[in-house]
Each structure stands twice: as structure tokens, then as C-alpha cells.
Design brief:
The chain is mainly alpha-helical. Helix content is 48%, strand content 0%. It has three helices and no strands. The longest helix is centred in the first third of the chain and has 10 residues. The chain starts with 8 loop residues before the first helix and ends in a 12-residue tail after the last helix.
Length: 56
């Protein structure tokens, strides 16, 4: 079985790595259905960039 990532997965993953998205914005992306909760947890487990301060 192959797992398919959300259409916006790579966008949000890159934003997280760059630090251009906050923890609360990631949660909002899940609420809007842009990424799954599983994907969000996977992303936020990785180091976040420091372009902007995080709010979480």
C-alpha cells in the first residue's frame, strides 16, 4: 500500500523547514484540510527554521 501525501504537503513542509510558518498556522492548515494531522505531527517533529519567531 502506498501512502499519498496531501496536495499542500511539500509547501507546508518547506515553510516549516524555513521557519516561515508558525505552530498555530500549521494547526489551522489541518483544520482547513490542507494537510492531515499525521502530516502536521510528522513535520513539527523536525527542526523548525528561524525566519520568524514561533508562537507555540
Amino acid at each position: 500500500m502506498t501512502t499519498q501525501q496531501s496536495v499542500c504537503y511539500f509547501y507546508f513542509n518547506d515553510c516549516w523547514k524555513n521557519g516561515t510558518i508558525t505552530t498555530s498556522e500549521m494547526a489551522a492548515a489541518v483544520e482547513m484540510g490542507l494537510i492531515t494531522e499525521y502530516e502536521r505531527l510528522e513535520m513539527v517533529a523536525k527542526p523548525r527554521g528561524d525566519a520568524f519567531p514561533d508562537d507555540g
